[in-house]
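Minutes, project check-in
Item: structure for the 200-residue chain
Input as provided by the requester:
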Amino acid sequence: MSVLPSSFETLIDKFAALPGVGRKSAQRLAFFVISMTDETAQSFADAITDAKRTIRECAVCCNLSEDEVCPVCSNTRRNPRIVCVVSDPKGVLAIERAREFGGVYHVLHGTISPLSGVTPDDLRIRELVARVADGGCDEVILATNPDTEGETTARYIARLIEPFGVRTTRLAYGIPVGSSLEFADDATLTRALEGRSEYN
């Protein structure tokens, strides 16, 4: 028998269902929410419901947007003919942080993972192929994670768009800046060698 009210237990369960949140973290979050003023708690709840109600997928790139077309796709300073394919919206944020990419994106909303039951039909791959088939792309950059699922997804997409003759590239992965060669694993070293470039 729990010493906590059932509504509080339910709140803990909801927080614990979030990715990366364990039971103890969920309890801390629940205690924090309960300690909020009514006004702050209502504002917090409103932010969740408003986001759920107003956020949709961009009609072009499938990224999160409040409008039919997201700010990146509608930005005339962007090059719409270079498309960077990422697994999820977090990938867009990561690449934008570098402030070096001037093209646009395509968000898959996942990666192919047979063990988890995720097939190509569950992703926004069909929409990407349609963009390429329309002739609107000069280059597709495959920027999925360098893990098994990311590599599988990248290879699958590369095969699908190959008939269209579009340049297809993959992000170079290798030795992180500030690290030591002796601590790099074989796969990382192989990637670093394959992705080497001219030294100027």
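Outcome recorded: The longest strand covers residues 82-86.
No further action items on this chain.
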